[in-house]
Amino acid sequence: MSAQEAKNILMENMKAEARTEAQAYINDTMDEARLNASKEAKRIVINTIQRTATETAIENAVTTFPIDNDEIKGRIIGREGRNIRALEAATGVEIVVDDTPDAILLSAFDPVRREVARLALHQLVVDGRIHPARIEEVVAKVQKQLEDEILETGKRTCIDLGIHGLNIELVRMIGRMKYRSSYGQNLLQHSREVANICAIMASELGLNPKVAKRAGLLHDIGKVSEEEPELPHALLGMKLAEQYKEKPDVCNAIGAHHEEIEMTSIISPIVMIGDAISGARPGARREVIESYIKRLKGMEDLAASYPGVTKSYAIQAGRELRVIVGAEEVSDDQAARLSADIAQKIQEEMTYPGQVKITVIRETRSVAYAK
């Protein structure tokens, strides 16, 4: 063997050894990076949830108006029902006067209308003069007072969160959030919570917390706008933010928080995560009982449609689906695949808050009788 050949073989061996060592180093580095990234992400999310706490307001479609005695019910109804008809026409709220002692029910899906009706009734009962002309006058006055209060609520919210320079129309919309709810979660409380979550996350990641807080507060303004209701609320909110000269980063974060447009701002995923944390934490939201039951039943039926499944149960308020399979028909490997298949199908076909855990149980039972 010549010196050159020996040199070439030695170099090839050294290259192979270096490649192996480099690959091992890369693998170790990648594993460490994944571990650290996972730890860091968990730390940020856990710290954010721990540092952000808020009361959850539960709104219904009915407001109870207390009265001192049943004689007032007769005066509210009026001769041949003229007073109650005038009240309903002026406020757009159904007023239910029944046998319930010392109470009248105000029924309407719009919380602003219910509040107008409640305040107007309070003034009329205190004043004592209840007739159609007076009713119209009081309702108009109360509507003006409520508009002023909505604007004041918006201003106070912006001051509390340290957000400045918002257009007055956006401030008014923030105030209107107080009288709106989403799955029973008060929209203003939800938006304040998302704003604080986004600011904390942005600070942890070394981004601008003020921009994140601003985007978090405004992310649901599309829900309180009365323009173009056929547009998704995220896109409508983005359109309003652009109209009132908000920065492109904020506009994109509002429009992309349900992934209906592409995320171009680094703040956008933070707003999406903040919205998910606020909405999905236990107790934050409640669903209409019919849609809730329908969703759970749909989950159980979906799992039962797979071959080998003997029973399926939705538990923990629909956050876990337990699937029991026959040991003779489904092997251990098939059970693992089945859980992934069901999870994928639920993700594609169903809507639900948070996440759903799918547990496939395969067990063998041997039964014998001693006689």
Features:
Alpha-Beta Plaits, Hypothetical protein af1432, 3 domains, mainly alpha, Ribosomal Protein S8, Chain: A, domain 1, 3-stranded antiparallel beta sheet, 371 residues, 3-stranded mixed beta sheet, 58% helix
Question: Would you give an account of this structure?
Answer:
The protein is mainly alpha-helical. Helices cover 58% and strands 10% of the residues. It has 13 helices and eight strands. Helix 3 (82-91) packs parallel to helix 5 and helix 5 crosses helix 6 (168-176).
Largest sheet: 3 strands, antiparallel
For the largest sheet, list the strands in their spatial order: 1-3-2
Rg over alpha carbons: 30 Å
Low-confidence stretches: 53-59
- Number of structurally distinct domains: 3
CATH topology of the largest domain: Hypothetical protein af1432
Write out the CATH superfamily name of the largest domain. Hypothetical protein af1432
| Helix and strand sequence | HEHHEEHHHEEHHHHHHEEHE
Beta strand count: 8
Strand content: 5-15%
Mean pLDDT: 81
Look at the structure and give the CATH class of the largest domain. Answer: Mainly Alpha
Between the first and last Cα atoms, what is the distance in angstroms? 85 Å
By DSSP (H or I, 4+ residues per run), the number of helices equals 13
Global outline: flat
Please give the share of residues in helix. Answer: 55-70%
